[in-house]
Amino acid sequence: MQAWQVHENGEPTEAMRLVDAEPPTPGDGQVRLRVRAANINFPDALLCRGQYQVRPSLPFTPGVEICGETEDGRRVLATTALPYGGFAEYALADAAALLPAPDPLDDAEAAALHIGYQTGWFGLHRRARLEAGETLLVHAAAGGVGSAAVQLGKAAGATVIGVVGGAEKAAVARTLGCDLVVDRRAEDVVATVKEATGGRGAEVIYDPVGGTAYEQSAKLAAFEGRIVVVGFAGGTIPSPALNHALVKNYSILGLHWGLYNTKNPELVRHCHEQLTELAARGAIKPLVSERVPLEDASAAVQRVADGVSTGRIVVLPAAKNGASA
């Protein structure tokens, strides 16, 4: 089979090599899946750089989530069992954690429904307890993680403010349904949101960026607001001023979705049922901006690493010249 492997850590285009390899052999409790579509996540770039919390032994194949096919022909969603990730024709996954792929979604859309939307659902509903009528602010609203949160927020009846970087991403955020889009490159985020909310700010703030975005979040948290810390795509881990949280009466909520797989896997399945129902009625649909063949995977991962992509880029191992799945 063909597979991308990382033999030395570095930037994706430098670290990833396309090689011929033997299909992986499942271990205890594992299953081998034919990869129908592999969604690119920011952690894939971190894996290449050796900066992710999980550091598989070299060489390894990145690609942490896929829509795959079992030997009996079932279409499933899976987080892969590294070092045998999804940027290959075959990958490994834990058999007990497989989820059925929603019928209304094609392979690329289904691959993109898993981690980003699960993170959004747990962040907004389990951690922040978002209520209809509240204001939700989403940083990086045109990205893979942010776009999922925007759609889930709208489905929950919230007013959604999207913060983006650049006119192109602003246009994408508007198509996702944001009630207000703020271009951080052209506007003062804090002043614009304060004006739009009558000085109140946002009840829930969804932050996958960190750094300056978190500083803005702290200034924009409403009374009894909740800041959901999802990640640090901006490259800087903030140091929250807890005295500020005390004085303004807001909460800082951490979210590590992967823990639910071990701490409460039944809740993961419940979440998937909720997402499947939302997808079936068209309330959510992953924004797949690019579908690329396997040979273009390293360049696509680099675009995600550089923050220049919108929505999700999905690798299709069986496709040629970027054909749809």
Q: Shape, please?
A: globular
- Terminal CA distance: 19 Å
The major sheet is characterized as: 7 strands, mixed
Number of strands: 15
What is the H/E order? EHEEHEEEEHHEHEHEHEHEHEHHEHE
Structural class estimated from helices and strands: alpha/beta
Q: Whole-number radius of gyration?
A: 19 Å
- Mean pLDDT figure: 95
Low-pLDDT residue spans:
321-325
Measured by DSSP, the beta-strand proportion falls in 25-35%
Q: Helix tally?
A: 12
The level of helicity is 25-40%
Report what the structure shows.
It is a single chain. This protein has 325 residues and is of the alpha/beta class. The chain contains twelve helices and 15 strands. The strands form three sheets. Strands 3, 4, 5, 6, 7, 14 and 15 form a seven-stranded mixed β-sheet that branches. Strands 10-9-8-11-12-13 form a six-stranded parallel β-sheet, sandwiched between helices. Strand 4 and strand 5 (75-79) form a beta hairpin. It is globular, with a radius of gyration of 19 Å. It starts with a strand and ends in a 9-residue tail after the last strand.
List keywords for this structure.
7-stranded mixed β-sheet; globular; 325 residues; 15 strands; disordered C terminus; alpha/beta; 6-stranded parallel β-sheet
Helix-strand blueprint:
Elements: E1 2-6, H1 12-15, E2 16-20, E3 30-39, H2 42-49, E4 65-69, E5 75-79, E6 90-94, E7 99-100, H3 107-111, H4 115-127, E8 135-139, H5 144-155, E9 159-164, H6 167-176, E10 180-183, H7 189-196, E11 202-207, H8 212-220, E12 221-229, H9 242-248, E13 251-254, H10 258-263, H11 265-280, E14 288-293, H12 297-305, E15 312-316
Parallel strand pairs: 8-9, 8-11, 9-10, 11-12, 12-13, 14-15
Antiparallel strand pairs: 1-2, 3-4, 3-6, 3-15, 4-5, 5-7
